[in-house]
Design a protein that fits this description.
- By secondary structure, the protein is mainly beta.
- 15% of the residues lie in helices and 37% in strands.
- Strand 6 and strand 7 form a beta hairpin.
- The relative contact order is 0.30.
Length: 151
C-alpha cells in the first residue's frame, strides 16, 4: 500500500473554538492539512496548509522541542496517526499525518475554494453534530486540553 506523509493542524481561537474546513473531495469536516511538500518539514507544512486553506495564521503550541546550537529543532507533533484514504486520482492509499495543536494569531477566515467548500470556527462540544471522520471529535477534545481555557 502506498503511504504519503501529511501534516495537519488543530487550530483554536481565543474563544476556544476549533477551526474546521469542509473538504470538497471527501465531503467531510476536517481540520486543515495536506501533503508535506519537498524541502518542507512537517511543522512548516501544517502552518502553510492552515494559511492556504483558511487565511488564518497560527503558532504551534505544546512542549518545547530539544534545543542545541548545533542543530535545528522541529516542533514535535501532538499526534502521528495513519489512516486509509480513498482518492479518485491516486487510488487507495494511506496517510501518515503529523497533527499539531495551534493557536490562531491573525488572519481573516477565508475558505480556499479549490480544496475546501467552507471554513468555520466550531465550539468543540458541537463537533459531534457535524459530518467528520470517526476519530476527529475525540482527537480535537484531547487537543483542547493543551490550550488555555477562555475566561
Amino acid at each position: 500500500m502506498i503511504r504519503h506523509f501529511t501534516s495537519s493542524a488543530i487550530v483554536f481561537n481565543e474563544e476556544g473554538h476549533v477551526l474546521l474546513v469542509h473538504h470538497n473531495k471527501i465531503d467531510l469536516w476536517l481540520y486543515p492539512g495536506g501533503h508535506v511538500d519537498p524541502n518542507e518539514d512537517p511543522a512548516e507544512a501544517a502552518l502553510r496548509e492552515v494559511h492556504e486553506e483558511t487565511g488564518i495564521v497560527a503558532d504551534i503550541i505544546g512542549p518545547q522541542p530539544f534545543r542545541h546550537p548545533a542543530v535545528r529543532s522541529i516542533p514535535s507533533p501532538f499526534a502521528i496517526i495513519e489512516m486509509d484514504i480513498e482518492d479518485r486520482t491516486v487510488g487507495p492509499h494511506r496517510h501518515i499525518d503529523f497533527v499539531y495543536v495551534c493557536q490562531a494569531t491573525s488572519g481573516r477566515l477565508t475558505a480556499q475554494a479549490e480544496e475546501v467548500g467552507g471554513a468555520q470556527w466550531v465550539p468543540v462540544e458541537n463537533m459531534p453534530a457535524l459530518r467528520t471522520p470517526a476519530e476527529l471529535p475525540a482527537l480535537v477534545s484531547e487537543a483542547a486540553r493543551l490550550i488555555p481555557q477562555p475566561a
